[in-house]
Amino acid sequence: MTVNRRFLLCRRPQGAPVPDDFRLVEEPVPAAPAGGFVIRNHFASLDPAQRGWMDDVPSYMPPIPLGDPVRATTVGVVHNSDNPDFAPGQWVLGLNALEDYSVAMPGGFTSVIDVAHVDSPSRFLSAMGAVGLTAYFGLLEVGKPQPGETLLVSGAAGAVGSMVGQIGKIKGCRVVGIAGGADKCRRLIEHYGFDAAIDYHGRSVTELAASIAQEAPQGADIVFENVGGDVLDAELMNLAMRARIVLCGLISEYNAPEKHGARNLWQVLVKRATMTGMLIADYVPRFAEGGAEIARWMAEGRLRVDEDVQVGLENAYDAFMRLFSGANTGKLVLKIV
Amino acid sequence: MTVNRRFLLCRRPQGAPVPDDFRLVEEPVPAAPAGGFVIRNHFASLDPAQRGWMDDVPSYMPPIPLGDPVRATTVGVVHNSDNPDFAPGQWVLGLNALEDYSVAMPGGFTSVIDVAHVDSPSRFLSAMGAVGLTAYFGLLEVGKPQPGETLLVSGAAGAVGSMVGQIGKIKGCRVVGIAGGADKCRRLIEHYGFDAAIDYHGRSVTELAASIAQEAPQGADIVFENVGGDVLDAELMNLAMRARIVLCGLISEYNAPEKHGARNLWQVLVKRATMTGMLIADYVPRFAEGGAEIARWMAEGRLRVDEDVQVGLENAYDAFMRLFSGANTGKLVLKIV
C-alpha cells in the first residue's frame, strides 16, 4: 500500500448527508512528524455523533474543517514512528479519521491497547469502546438503576441501546426496549433478553405512548434516550414519579433541517423528572474500570455485543448512512484493512 | 350576601380559553357539612397551572370536572363551621375554587393563617404563597445557586420570575432576565435590581440567543424556566457546562393546540446539563421555613413582591387571560370581596 485513501468532508450536509458532500482522494502515505507517529487504521467507528461534527455549530468538539477527512475513532497499528512510546507494530486506539493512515502526536487521544484477549481489535470500538462505555456509565452513573425498577430504552437494538438493556437486566430492572421493526423487536427479546419490546414503526405518538403504558403500567423509572423526536414524546407520557432521563442521543433529529422538538416536556415538570445530558468524554479516568466489568460480563456470557462490520473506505458513505436508515444491528464499524 | 356566585368550567378550552368555556352562576350559600366548614373567599390566586387543570389529560392533579367551578387557591374567612379547628372568623388558606363560598373538609389542603403581620391577606397567595415558595425552593433546592454564577430567568417580570431574580441577587448571582416589552425590561433593572434584561418581543430564536450570549458570555449556570417554546430554545443555546435548568413552567405552550417543542435539547447533551421538573407540592413540609425567610427579606427591603389585583368574580375570565397576554406584572390575584 503506497497511497493513503482519505474520505474527505467537502461540503456541510443539509439535512441527510448525500454522496457529493464527501470525496475519496488518494494521497501519499505520510511520514512520521518529529516526535509523532503514523497509524495504519484497521477499523473505524461509525457513530451518530459524526453527523453533528459535520455541521458548523458549537458543540463539544470543533466542526470537521471542510477538506479534512471525516473524524472518527479508529483502531490500528503504528506504521512508522518518531516516538519511542509508540513503536511500529503496536496496536493503538485513537481519535483519527476515515483514512488509511493517520498522523498522530503524543498527548492526544491515542492510547496503546492490548488486543491479545479480544476476538477482534474492533472490540475496542464496540464493547470496550465509546459505545460500551457510554452504555455502562450512562446507565449506571446517570440512570442509577435499582432492582425492580422499570428501564425504558429507545434505539434499543442499536449499539448503545442493546448494551444498556442487558446491563439493566444484570442490575435487576424490568427492561422495555423500543426499536423499529418486528425483526429488531424479536431480537431484543430472544437475543438480548429484554422483558418487552415495542415497535415504533407506523405508530403515532399517542399509539406509541399507549403501547409503552401497556408494558410499563407504573411508568418508566429510567428512560435511556437515544432517539428523540416522536419516540421521546411518547416516552415522556409514561414517566414514573421522579424518573431519570439519560439523554444520550437524539438520532432522529440529527439529519432534520427543521427539528421536531420535544413537545411533552411539561411531563418532566408534572413528574418532577430529571433529564441529564451524558457524554462519555467525562468518564475517561474510569474507562479501565468500565472496560474490565464489560469484559467480565461478556466472558460470563451475560452480555452480548454485536458488531455490524462494513468493509472498505470506498463504502464509507453507504456504511455511515446505515446509522440513519435503521439498517444496522449492533455497533457499526468500517473495516479499512 | 345570600347567593354564592360560582365561575364554572362548562367546556374544555381548545387552545386559548374563550368566554364561552365558562359560566358564572348563582347558587344558595352552602351549609357546613358534618365535620366540615364553609369559607367566604376573599382573594383567589390566578395561575398558569389552572390552564392545565382545564384539560382532560393526566397531570399531577385531576382535571377540573366540567360543571365544577374553576379550582383555585384562595384565602378567606371561615363563614360557618361544624368543626372546632376551623371557627367562624378565622382566616384560612386552601385549595378551593373561583366562587364566593367554598365547602371544605379537614384533612384537605386548608390551613389556618395568621394575617396579623401582613399588609394584605393576599400575601399568602403571592410572597408567602405557592408563587413565593416556588421561587424560593425552585431556585435554592433545584438551581443551587453559587456566588458568581450566572442565573438566567424567563418570564422574569412575572410573579415567580421577579422573585427568582431577586433571590438570585441575594445569593450573589449575576442575574439576567428575559421579559416581553421594554417596560417590563426597565422594571427588571430599576424595580427588581436585575443585572441585565432582554426583551424577547419580535426576536427570532437566533436573535434572542445572540442577545443572551451578549449578557451571559460564559453561558448560564442556572436557567429558571417559566416560558418554554422559542425562549427555552434560545436559552438552551447559551448553557454553561453542567448547567442546571429548573423547569418550573412552560406558559408559552399551555394554550398552544400544536405544541412547539424544545428543538435544542441536544445542547443539554452537549453541555451535560440537567433539566429538572419542579412542583411546589413537594416542599409542603418546608413551607414555614421558606415563608419565614421570604418575610425576613421583605422586611429588610431586599425583596419586592408585587401583586396585580383584579376585582370581581364577574371579571374572572378577563383577569385570568392577563396571564397569557403578558399584561400582568407581579402576582395576579382576583379580589372576590
UniProtKB/TrEMBL annotation, chains A, B:
SUPFAM superfamilies per record = GroES-like, NAD(P)-binding Rossmann-fold domains
Q: Gene3D superfamilies, from UniProt?
A: Medium-chain alcohol dehydrogenases, catalytic domain (3.90.180.10), NAD(P)-binding Rossmann-like Domain (3.40.50.720)
Q: Which Pfam families match?
A: ADH_N_2, ADH_zinc_N
Domain of life per record: Bacteria
Q: Which PANTHER family match?
A: PROSTAGLANDIN REDUCTASE, PROSTAGLANDIN REDUCTASE 1
Q: What is the lineage of its organism?
A: Bacteria, Pseudomonadati, Pseudomonadota, Alphaproteobacteria, Sphingomonadales
Where, if anywhere, are coiled coils annotated? none
| Protein name (record) | NADP-dependent oxidoreductase
GO: which molecular function terms? Answer: oxidoreductase activity, acting on the CH-CH group of donors, NAD or NADP as acceptor
The Enoyl reductase (ER) domain sits at 17-334
Its keywords, alphabetically, are:
Oxidoreductase
